[in-house]
Queue: 3 jobs
Job 1
Amino acid sequence: MRKPVVIGLGEVLWDLLPGEKKLGGAPANVAFHARQLGADAVVVSAIGNDALGEEMIDVLVKKQLSHHLAKTVWPTGTVEVKLHQGNPEYNIIENVAWDHIQYTTEIEYLADTASAICFGSLAQRSLLTQQTIYKVLSRMPDQAIKLFDINIRQQYFTREILLRSLNACNMLKINHEELDLLTDLLQLPSDETEKLHVILQKFGLQLIALTKGEKGSLLYTDKEVSNVEATHIQVVDTIGAGDSFSAALIMGLINKNPLCQIHQHAARVSSFVCTQKGATPQLPVELIF
């Protein structure tokens, strides 16, 4: 049986942590975990013609993660990460390779055959990459999952980017801070469930995933609501936890599992990632389908 194609489109970069560097970028993280969970996952991005770019390809090969990484004259992306009580703060370097992702016939083929895609707001800070993202979304099959993970970082978003993305996706993943931002942007009601209902209806979404840190998470559809409380764990860092949640969500939906089962599994996967260093640890066998 052919594996479902899951695309992570956007930023791929090095998280420069204290004393070491780790593969990062939300779309790349989602693709990595989707591969672990049974997808034919592909990272679509760009790297520099430099040592960091070559090292990134080596790491992706070792992680058995397929990639379409165009080489550019711009440097491979990096992010300076500082941890405060396990929570990351980011300094994202500008005008790097993933700001220059060109739409190609190879990317077009991937779009035509994809079962799901994850994209965010950060990679849309450049017009070229933004245009590529929307070309891919428009090519994908109607039944494909188009998950928009808002993933607000620093000043790299605008009202127009958020609204266009919400109109282009069919599923949304946000955290509680990003929901507050949308509340101001869209003049939403104060009640959390009502907020999600308005967003779902306004943009014709199939599902909203809301992650709330220590308060757990919520999946909301027009037919069903699932709440999962957070488990008590020893947090090492939270880098990539939301991305692993997105990957598990995507794969559960592709496999047509019950919503509550999908949710419980996604919560367990993201909790495990929080107990590890970096965004892309190897999942234990009990968390793999």
Job 2
Amino acid sequence: MRAVIQRVLGASVSVDGQVISSIGKGLLVLVGIDRYDEPPDRALILKKILSAKLFDDQDGGSWKRSVKDIDGEVLCVSQFTLFANFKGAKPDFHESMSTIPGSAYYHAFLDEIRSAYIPERIKDGRFGAMMQVSLTNDASYIFISTSSSLSILDESTSS
């Protein structure tokens, strides 16, 4: 799995000109699913999303609070292009999980992240839809987490 995590003051997703989801202060997360992803990948990514210290504290100390600490919201948007490769000038999406298992995997991820936080604070787009995503960045902080590299980090720090 791969997550592009952006700190936002607000974000929304529209389909066919209609806003289907929106959040205030929190995180906009573009979620990509690799064709080899397994349930442990979901657990690693959702832990990173909810526990990463991306917000300042009350005293202005940088990188002190998580989205949970600030009672923020999370807008998850499925993004199969995060695993695209280029063959010449054309993108190739064979590393992304295919539609039917990808949809099931993504919805399981949403269920798990809602269970790990306050369900009403987790919003999402529409899997497989042509979505328009609008956001107001809270500074230009963008972070990328990939579950395979997180697995390596977790193994190396646990011994």
Job 3
Amino acid sequence: ENTLIGLPPPFRLNKILMNTTSSPEARQTGKAPNHSINWIKDDGPTVEVINAVTGKCNTGSVSRLSKQMFFMKFYELLRKKIPTKTGITLETAPDVYLDAKDQVQSYKDAKTYMIAAFKKAGLGVWMKKPEEQDQFIYSTAAC
């Protein structure tokens, strides 16, 4: 916490309040469920059941919590001319998710600060994912 200094706005350290236990049970990956569930408060009975292996909804559709869906929602904001903190406009928005992230300097700075803070606090090295994971193209076909 004390190692995370200098985050650019609008980024900030969020502290979640969770119940703690006096005798934490060791993580047992063999007991991990093969699905997850999410819902939106006040949105009626719209529960999404997601296959934990594929990341897709049990209906085969794209999850509302996926990067692909968030990227599509970002484009909706741009089309409606709603200002974002990214500095990206509909005219300058790249079609590739990774390229959009790379255009936002404050995001890249915040990520650099966070990785350095983890290292300084002795929390280990940030695990990098394959770049290909974020090299998908904006498409309205997913909706």
